[in-house]
Amino acid sequence: MALKVFLVEDESVIREGLRDNIPWEQYGYRFVGEAADGEMALPMIRKERPDVIITDIKMPFMDGLSLSHIVKQEIPETKIIIISGYDDFEYARQAIKEGVEQYLLKPITRSTLQKALAEVKEKIDAEQEQKNYLKKYQSEMHEYEQSFRRNFFEKVFQGQTPLQEIYEEAARHSLDINAPAYNLILMCVQEKSGKDEAGENCQECQEELMRYFLRFPGTNLTFRWSINVYGILVKGDAGAIEEQTTAYLETIEEICGRYEENLEWYAAAGNPVERFSMLGECYKAANHTFSYRFFAADKHILTDNMVKTTASEESVETGKIDRINTDLVNPDLIKGFLANGQSEEIDEFTSNFVAGISDAIGSKLFWDYLLLNLRFTVAGFIDEIGADQNAFLSEQSIDDVRVMEMTCSNMKRYMTGLLEKAIEYRDEKNDFQGKKALKLALSYIDENYAKETLSLNEVAQESQVSPNYFSAMFSQEMGQTFIEYVTRKRMDKAKELLLTEGIRSGDVGPLVGYKNPQYFSFVFKKTEGCSPREYRSSHSK
Q: Is the four-CA dihedral 422, 425, 427, 430 of positive or negative sign?
């Protein structure tokens, strides 16, 4: 891609000669503008943002050094070439001070300018290459950061780790947790079953959400809480934290709304707190509201008021079975929770469920119906996931509960036991499938780590699981992320090859998955603390 060049020269003959007689495109440039002095040039430069400025040093109104100073302040990446009729050391010293790349004396020959332009272009290309390497490396390491954040916030919400230790751990990982006030948003984005494009849309939506939140590191920290659930720690001034939370929820709604046909998504916020040590309370409030997503499938942004209002509307007179919320006894509600809920959400779920049918608990007919409905719905789920339904049913006695006193607490106790055991079965099944997928993944990585195109999506597909599940499962089982694992495997092999006679340092990169030798050197130095050549030299006999 051609670099943009802008010319500033008060002598029209020289300016027009350079503009018309230099084959800019041949040198890799595109001429984007000219001006007779710095004052006229500045607004045009601000608009065009050229890569290179060629400017005379002596001009009326604003000279080249003053222009260079302003440009370097506003657009520091722009390179400046000064042309001057003054062979004066003081001018050259000032030019160096302002960060000027080249200082050329008039008259300027084509070969002199061509050489200067070539050197500047080479420098720009090298800097851009380094930026690209760093961006790629940071992208690869982003998954590692998310894994750390999940563990970090689990400690924060549990409230059992000393606060000083929390702050020290945050500092070690450059995690900015200081703010006058905080709030927490929990957000779930998952595929709708039976939709062909759901998986792809889900990943696109999650990536778009993460890109948005990463644009504002000063007011939020994002982290992955589970396979499909993300957390957003909102940071800000006490007087603005609620407004900031609302703005984030609106953005979540806007982005997820574009994919709504193929996705199920929900978001809920906690109550703002003014101490980091109070985030455990904030999490409880957010999780309480968030757990209501199983009861409000048609809602997306869940609020505490919504939960209270719905609970109030569901309150009915004692014994009026015909006025209970029939949605609550729909088997799909229980199956939905078993498929996507977490064990720590069981208490909230059962509390909401029982509260919605509490006024009908006194009916023996309804009591027996509900017990059987719950039992066989859960047993049906166990069968669907391929677990042993008979073994599950034999462990869950119903006779004792049927003759129990018909109270909400007894119903909640029975329901909690059912769900806990079912989720235990589900997680054991997932654990078995995860270990199987992990075995396939590790074998595939061993055989293909030298492929430059090797990706998480590719390995997940070979392991017959979704990329989201694979990413979370791999990190949990291996204690490191997919990218960390692959990078370490490549670096260990690279070090082995660097100490192998007959293999040049420059040939090692392509053998371990890096066709670009510069990027290989960049990653090697980032992970090993020295260049490949330095490593070979320090370990040679």
A: negative
Q: Residue 357 is part of which domain span?
A: 314-434
Contact between 237 and 218 under an 8 Å Cβ cutoff? The reply is no
Give a yes or no: residue 140 inside a domain: no
Which amino acid, 392? F
pLDDT in tens, 407-449: 888 888 888 988 998 888 888 887 777 788 889 999 999 999 9
* Domain end marker among 259, 277, 302: 302
Closest Cα partner for 209 from 242, 163, 165, 257? 257
In a domain, 357, yes or no: yes
**CB-based contact 293:303 (threshold 8 Å):** no
Give 10-residue mean pLDDT values along the chain (541 residues). 90 87 89 90 92 87 86 90 76 75 82 89 84 63 61 86 91 88 93 66 84 88 82 94 95 91 90 93 90 81 71 43 57 84 85 80 76 84 82 69 78 88 85 84 92 85 79 78 88 91 86 86 87 86 57
Task: Tell me, yes or no, whether 55 lies in a domain.
Answer: yes
In the listed set 434, 464, 495, which residue is the last one of a domain according to the structure? 434
Tell whether 328 and 294 lie within a shared domain. no
Residues 359 and 426 grouped into a single domain: yes
Number of domain units in the chain = 4
403, 476: one domain: no
In a domain, 184, yes or no: yes
Among 454, 488, 457, 450, smallest CA distance to 471 is for: 457
Range 116-119 contact pairs with CB under 8 angstroms and sequence separation of 24 or more: 116/81, 117/5, 117/27, 117/28, 117/29, 117/52, 117/81, 118/27
* Of 256, 271, 270, 266, the residue nearest 301 (C-alpha): 266
Residue type, 206: Q
Helix (H) / strand (E) containing 191: strand 181-191
Considering the domain architecture, whether residues 17 and 118 belong to the same structural domain is answered as yes
Cβ contact 3:121 at 8 Å: yes
The Cα 455–Cα 532 span in angstroms is: 24
Adjacent-strand bridge partners of 102: 81
Q: Which candidate, 202, 251, 198, places its Cα nearest to that of 229?
A: 202
Tell whether 237 and 351 lie within a shared domain.
Answer: no
Q: Is 279 helix (H, G, I), strand (E, B) or coil?
A: helix
- Alpha-carbon gap, residue 349 to 315, rounded angstroms: 17
Asked if residue 222 and residue 187 are part of one domain, the reply reads yes
224: β partners = 230
What is the 3-state secondary structure of 470-535?
HHHHHHHHHCCCHHHHHHHHHHHHHHHHHCCCCCCHHHHHHHCCCCCHHHHHHHHHHHHCCCHHHH
Rounded to two decimals, what is the model's pTM? Answer: 0.53
The 3-state DSSP class for residue 184 equals strand
- On whether both 294 and 325 belong to a single domain, the answer is no
Distance, in Å, from the CA atom of 296 to the CA atom of 159, rounded to the nearest integer, reads 30
